[in-house]
Specification:
about 325 residues, alpha/beta, Rossmann fold, 2 domains, 6-stranded parallel beta sheet, 13 helices
């Protein structure tokens, strides 16, 4: 039997980027069951990393807070503690799949052989100078396929035909009554990515009348909560979700009869759970950052192209039928 090997993956953020790494981890573990996989992430995304069963250890950092509080002694103590921890472990290999200067810099604290993208394959080419082994990955590939290609080249195997996210459904939230429901992921990072509120309300009415579904609207920030409250008040059957952890959100999504979402991390999480899903894009290209198309998931829209309610309903029916 081959000896256990310690691998560190450095992919610190954001939620969608971490989820896009899951299929590569699934494939890696299939080829190398002897790998003990650790994952370095931003503390706020620890739940996302830990959801994958092949991840043995999640190591957290607070880069965003550290950057804003460099003048505080506590910040430097936390940085020193992380650096000491990374350096103390006997890593066989460290793979930086983020490709940023900050991720490459932190990866270098391990004093282990580093692997990552070559200078032509990342947004910050200088990051590649930190790596001992560099790999070319086509920019035209989707985020999921870029990760799969990097992992396959770094560890010497061939990418399989279809990606497998490799996670399973969590528990249904205790606060949600036992009733069929749809999750409407209305919140996103930029106003240009939002879908019109009138569209959400019309969609909710059709889902209630045609399928008997209750709408559940999650939120993350106070502005998102206010928007969700406004939408819930205009819908025939709707529930404002409480503040949830990412693990709790995964449970909510996993038991939904349908998920409709804009370009946001939770939409990609629903994609990984194989729930009937329609992903709506109004300001980004789904060919690059969209969900992985499956019989249960479809992308609609594009840059400056906003799909209508009829188009979303038609796509959802096909996803629910698994065709």
């Amino acid at each position: 039997m081959r000896a256990m090997m310690n691998l560190l993956i450095v992919r610190t953020s954001s939620m969608g980027d971490l989820i896009h790494t899951w299929p590569a981890i699934s494939e890696l573990k299939k080829h190398y069951p002897n790998f003990r996989i650790s994952w370095l992430v931003e503390k706020s995304f620890a739940d996302i990393a830990s959801l994958h069963p092949a991840v043995d250890q999640v190591i957290t950092m607070n880069w965003r807070r550290w950057r804003a509080q460099l003048w505080q002694l506590k910040t430097w103590r936390e940085i020193a503690s992380l650096r000491q921890h990374l350096k103390a472990v006997d890593w066989d290999v460290v793979l930086d799949s983020q490709g940023l200067l900050r991720s490459a810099f932190v990866a270098s604290w391990t004093k282990a052989p580093l692997a990552g993208f070559d200078w032509r394959s990342v947004r910050e080419p200088l990051a590649s100078l930190f790596y001992h082994k560099r790999y070319r990955v086509d920019w035209n590939l989707s985020a999921v396929e870029r990760n799969r290609s990097l992992f396959a080249q770094a560890f010497g195997y061939t990418v399989a035909s279809s990606p497998q996210f490799g996670i399973t459904a969590g528990e249904c939230p205790v606060w949600l009554a036992q009733q069929p429901y749809a999750v409407l992921l209305h919140a996103t990072s930029r106003a240009a990515k939002q879908w019109p509120e009138t569209h959400w309300c019309l969609l909710a009415k059709r889902l209630f009348v045609e399928q008997g579904l209750t709408m559940v609207l999650p939120w993350g920030s106070e502005p998102e909560k206010h928007r969700a409250e406004r939408l819930v008040a205009q819908m025939p059957a709707a529930v404002l979700a409480p503040k949830m952890s990412l693990r709790e959100a995964a449970g909510l999504l996993a038991h939904a009869q349908a998920v409709i979402g804009v370009d946001t991390g939770l939409t990609h999480l629903a994609n990984a759970l194989n729930i009937p899903l329609v992903a709506i894009y109004t300001d980004t290209d789904p060919a690059r950052t969209g969900v992985v198309p499956t019989p249960y998931a479809r992308n609609l829209g594009n840059v400056a192209s906003c799909p209508g309610v009829d188009e979303v309903m038609e796509a959802l029916l096909l996803c629910q039928a698994g065709v």
